[in-house]
Amino acid sequence: EIVLTQSPATLSLSPGERATLSCRASQSVSSYLAWYQQKPGQAPRLLIYDALTRATGIPARFSGSGSGTDFTLTISSLEPEDFAVYYCQQRSNWRGETFGPGTKVDIK
Amino acid sequence: QVQLVESGGGVVQPGRSLRLSCAASGFTFSHYAMHWVRQAPGKGLEWVAIISYDGSNIYYADSVKGRFTISRDNSKNTLYFQMNSLRAEDTAVYYCARDLQQWLVDGYFEYWGQGTLVTVSS
Fold this sequence. Notes:
The complex is a heterodimer. By secondary structure, chain A is mainly β.
């Protein structure tokens, strides 16, 4: 089973700052990794898939990078609506899609 | 626009059963694989089941295998989740989610419902 770890657990930043979130897989997932954003009381939203492809309607300030076991989600300049929890998810073995534990981005 | 509306959640005693439904609209339901993903209160996301566009391929997380059954009725644009032998640890918001691409089992969740809360408690 592939295990995803995310760091940091919490990221405290101010609007306008750059956010860098990390996701590490216990074994290679190639580029089969996605990022989701979830706000309190809402369903998750797909941001990035295949490690670097933005989903429909996602602003350009969100970007993904990485392959193999190490991945990064970057938010170039935080907007007030970006403060949320972010999950990575792998589909390398789609019989067992797994999510990371999440990184909370909160306001400093 | 794509809409997924779950229903059927509620409070149920341990060992009992519950059936969730997910009504889909705004896209050709029969072309897409569908998933159930759950989230325990205050916890992270857990994928639990997938069904291919035609129902021919079905997979479950180990945590629900043998107790839960995913199915679909393409004529009614509806996804189902039969949950038997419920346990306290099954307490969660259950989301239905649509796969990203048509025909394939892509494994990314592009659209989500609003979720339905299942509480297993005596």
